[in-house]
Amino acid sequence: MTREREAAGTLGVALVGFGTVGQSVARILIGGAEGLRLVRICNRHVARKRVAWVPERVSWTESIDDVLTSDVDVVVELIGGTDPALEWMRRALEAGKSVVTANKQAIAHHGTELFSLARRYGGRLGFEASVAGGIPVIRGIQEGLAADEVVRIQGILNGTCNFILSALASSPLAFETVLADAQAHGFAEADPSADLDGLDAQAKIAILSAIGLGRRVDPSAIECRSIRGLETGDFDAARTLGCAVRQVSTAERMEPAGVRAAVGPALVRLDSRLAQVEGSENVVLVDGARGGQTGFVGHGAGGDSTAVAVVADLMAIARRDGHAATDCFPIDGEPQAVHPMGARPYYLRVSGGTAAATQLAACGVSVARSLDVANGCVRLVTAAVTGAEVEAAIETLAAGSTRISAALPMLDGAGGA
Ligand SMILES: NC(=O)c1ccc[n+]([C@@H]2O[C@H](COP(=O)([O-])OP(=O)(O)OC[C@H]3O[C@@H](n4cnc5c(N)ncnc54)[C@H](OP(=O)(O)O)[C@@H]3O)[C@@H](O)[C@H]2O)c1
Predict the structure, then answer these.
(1) Same domain membership, residue 149 and residue 15
(2) What would the pLDDT profile of 241-298 be if each residue is shown by its tens digit?
(3) Which end of the chain is more exposed for a tag (fewer CB within 10 A), N or C?
(4) Among the atoms of ligand 1, which is closest to the Cα of residue 130?
């Protein structure tokens, strides 16, 4: 029955989660999207969620069982989080339905299981919206760059961090003030930890590693550093070095297996594509061995832009073409090893140490350039070192009175290094 309707080109869609993205998806479907019919909306506390612009032919429910026992063809999961979203996606796939989701944590951490279920029960699993919101980067890599051999993916994958870092660079306000402003304007969640500390971007770069590099990894193995604690002086120092501060996510393909990967604040050259992405935008730069670098830029979040990606997956399922993704996520074998990034220069802010350079040298970190001394802090650039060497120096110096309170890698020749 379901398959017949798919073949006839009219997919019955159930929307689970009528929040920011869910409402935008509903508006597109109600406005008319070829081959798709919104038939059901599932959310807790329906009485509170009901809106007049949803036509009466669409039924409302608070029960996922109503959805799973109905004859809808596709379940669109837009409640977010793991519990109960993951279990509901499992059950939908086991019921032979296709699933479309924007849930990066579920795909990054449980993709293998979900894609296995999709394969076993014949459903499709679309996840374009799980990375970089409305930017069609999964489809772009999988289809557009199919003939290339992708060796590196680097990007700004968290709009909240980019908004905060852009704001800090252009004002003397303190981190906490800028964060509170971002929260007040809806650019940051009430609990911003997943964004600021890198867990959101960690899940996204893990997904990109799987579909772009063919290297499925355990997301939690990717090193994450927080953007918390950066201050105006760091942004001034970055400018002196011809750089901007960005939260950068990187995954590099290693041969014959594994990746180098990291997420965290870094200095990037002002003339780089990463620096030119301002505010809440995202960018994904894909380096191919054959085609060189390809960039994807746009709105990485927001109800309408994310809904565009969700509905694109639905349309792909309705068309029955290859890209609602079941076959593009590598599910066989164990997750591959994640290695730290290689040696590069670091920008350091060191406080409490009058002889920071000497102390760092004693830890094996040599100073290539001292920038300034202000408010008891020394700002400097090191020679190329690994993250582990910087961590070791932080620990060693903390045993005395010297504190390395900011340590940002400088990427791709930043600072003329
Ligand atoms: N917003 C964006 O810009 C964006 C961008 C990219 C990806 N995403 C992803 O898209 C998904 C949805 O995000 P969103 O921003 O639309 O979230 P949201 O505004 O918080 O909406 C979530 C909806 O799901 C409902 N819900 C939550 N838990 C539920 C449960 N246990 N049972 C029934 N309903 C439940 C909520 O109901 P209540 O109203 O009662 O809370 C709310 O209506 C997430 O995976 C998110 O990461 C969002």
Answers:
(1) no
(2) 999 999 999 999 999 999 999 999 999 999 999 999 988 899 999 999 999 999 999 9
(3) N
(4) 7
